[in-house]
Design a protein that fits this description.
Layout lengths: L3 H8 L11 H10 L16 E2 H9 L13 H9 L8 E10 L4 E11 L2 E6 L6 H9 L7 H16 L3 E7 L1 H12 L2 H4 L2 E7 L6 H4 L2 H6 L3 E6 L13 E5 L16 E2 L2 E2 L1 E2 L4 H16 L2 H16 L6 H6 L1 H14 L2 H31 L16
Length: 382
């Protein structure tokens, strides 16, 4: 089936005046902020470099491909840079901050589409352990440092960037986009056309019940693949739009696997039973852990990983056999209280999974075979 690359070939020669910004464009613009444009795209909101010029500079850097989060980003950047629709877009306001001591990973960029229309793109989690630790922290802490930075970034960008704003991101970037739009100044909220969360996690009740979120929620759309895990985490109040992916399981988080039909996604009525199973299991598990217990679990888990001296997932996996021995040794040497807390949390997760299996079996037996099982009460299709 067709994907982003096919869209770039089909529609890449059409200007923004000929065909306006659509949901596939938004996904492409969300992915652009994943590209490591450090030292290439200006940090200032008043200095601009075109997509084509930024791509040329990046591709001429030694070892450029090794800096990418996904191998697919290389052909993606080349296609975007060769597309008449995207290559002249202006990039500015680039920031990329990874601070292990603050447990923060934050990156964003502004993309000028038209003189009176810009897209604020928030990057999702990169390969840094700091970024993954921050993701886990979202289960017990609001706001995390990246969310605070996301609000400040949008407020600052809006001071320098005129006209209408569109906000978006993929994975954690989608969460940051919604959070920033919810807690930016009200006058900036009025300038926002839409907020797109591409398979990013939700929030706890304190965010969903806030005045800022309630003011912006009608402009928010969350897109998830049919076997979504990340996008189903925590809570959402905005509409879900379920997209068909040609990958399986967790690999559907890869936005390059999402299927498109001309200038829109290929939609499904609901997520898969596996996605519902994972969603129920994780939510049940989290409700059994207090915020303090969640924090203890996350801190303990990452303290073990820190013993490997790896700062990225790549470093962790490159020497996997050595690091696995270090992890096992760290677990054995852990004090009794820490080991008990970790085992307790994992035991609750196992029990939550067993309970979800039992519920699935009971629902399967009770459900009439001639009626389709749908979740239209929580998932909507355009």
């Amino acid at each position: 089936m067709a994907n982003l690359f096919d869209y770039l070939k089909w529609r890449g020669d059409l200007s923004w005046e000929q065909t306006p910004l659509n949901e596939i464009d938004s996904l492409i613009l969300s992915r652009l902020s994943y590209l490591p444009f450090d030292g290439i795209v200006p940090s200032s909101f008043t200095e601009v470099i075109s997509v084509s010029d930024a791509a040329k500079q990046f591709l001429h850097k030694e070892g450029a491909a090794e800096q990418l989060i996904m191998k697919t980003d290389l052909p993606f950047l080349q296609e975007v840079a060769n597309s008449d629709r995207f290559n002249k877009l202006g990039l500015c306001g680039y920031t990329n901050q990874v601070k292990l001591d603050e447990e923060k990973q934050f990156a964003a960029m502004v993309i000028h589409l038209l003189p009176d229309l810009s897209y604020v793109s928030y990057r999702g989690t990169d390969l840094s352990l700091a970024g993954w630790k921050e993701d886990f922290n979202m289960s017990f802490c609001t706001p995390v440092p990246a969310q605070i930075d996301a609000v400040a970034y949008l407020n600052n960008a809006a001071e320098e960037v005129p006209g209408t704003l569109c906000i978006g991101g993929h994975s954690k970037g989608g969460n940051l986009a919604v959070y920033a739009a919810s807690f930016c100044r009200p006058d900036i909220q009025d300038r926002i056309r839409f907020v797109h969360n591409h398979d990013g996690p939700g929030f706890d009740s304190c965010v969903l019940e806030s005045d800022g979120y309630q003011r912006i929620v009608e402009k928010v759309k969350t897109f998830i693949p049919q076997s979504s895990v990340v996008g189903m985490l925590l809570q959402h109040e905005e509409d879900y739009y379920v997209i068909r992916s040609d990958q399986v399981g967790l690999m559907q988080h890869d936005l390059f696997s999402w299927e498109v039909d001309r200038d829109r996604f290929v939609y499904l009525d609901e997520v898969t039973d596996k996605s519902k199973f994972v969603d129920r299991t994780l939510k049940s598990w989290l409700t059994q852990l207090s915020p303090e217990q969640r924090e203890q679990f996350v801190d303990t888990l990452f303290s073990i990983l820190e013993e490997t001296n790896a700062s990225t997932l790549k470093e962790l996996t490159l020497n996997w056999h050595r690091n696995a021995r270090i992890v096992l040794r760290s677990f054995r040497e852990m004090d009794d209280a820490m080991r008990h807390n970790l085992a307790h949390a994992l035991g609750l997760l196992f029990e939550a999974a067993k309970e979800s299996v039992r519920n699935n079996l009971q629902q399967s037996r009770a459900r009439p075979k001639f009626l389709p099982h749908k979740a239209t009460d929580i998932i909507k299709k355009p």
